[in-house]
Amino acid sequence: MASLNKVILIGNLGKDPENRFLPSGGAVCNFSIATTESWKDKASGQKQEKTEWHNITMYGRLAEVAGQFLKKGSSVYLEGRLQTRKWQDKATGQDRYTTEIIADEMKMLGSRSGDSSSGVDGQQSSGRQQRPAAAATPASSVPRNFDDFEDDIPF
Q1: How far apart are CA 30 and CA 19, in angstroms?
Q2: Minimum mean pLDDT range among 51-55, 119-123, 139-143
Q3: What's the CATH code of the domain at 42?
Q4: 16-48 residue pLDDT tens
Q5: Structural domains in the chain (count)
Q6: What angle do CA 19, 23, 29 make, to 5 degrees?
Q7: CA distance 129 to 132
Q8: CA–CA separation, 11 vs 6, rounded Å?
Q9: Where does this protein have compositionally biased stretches of type Low complexity (predicted)?
C-alpha cells in the first residue's frame, strides 16, 4: 500500500528565522509560522478565528535563503513533510516529542508593507531549483495582442 506524507502551508512568520550550521557545514534554519482559520459562528453569527502555529525546519541552500530573506511577519508558502522527533528533557529526564514540518520548497509571497530593505518584494525561491529574478522588460517590447508574437516556435 502506498503512503504519502505531504504538508502545504501558507502563513506568516512569528519571529525572525534562527540559522545555524551543522558540523558537516550544512545550514539549518528554524522558524514558526502562523496559519489562521476564520468562520462565522452559526449560533451567534459572530466571526470566529483560530490560529495554529507550525514549527518549520529547513536544510541546505533553502535554509540559507530563508535565513537571508525571511523576517518576522513575512508571508510564505511552504511544502514539506511532517516529522515527529523524540528527545529527553535535561531537567527532568522525561521523554518529550516535537512535531515539525521539514520544508523542501518555499515561495516568498511578498514583503511586509513599508519594508523596502528586505529585497524580497514578490521574489520567489524554491528548494528544488533556484531561479534568477527576471529582468524587467520595457513596456514597448511586450506584445500587445496575438498577432504581435513571433511566428518562430522553438520545437
Answers
A1: 7
A2: 119-123
A3: 2.40.50.140
A4: 999 999 999 999 999 999 999 999 988 888 999
A5: 1
A6: 20
A7: 10
A8: 16
A9: 110-141
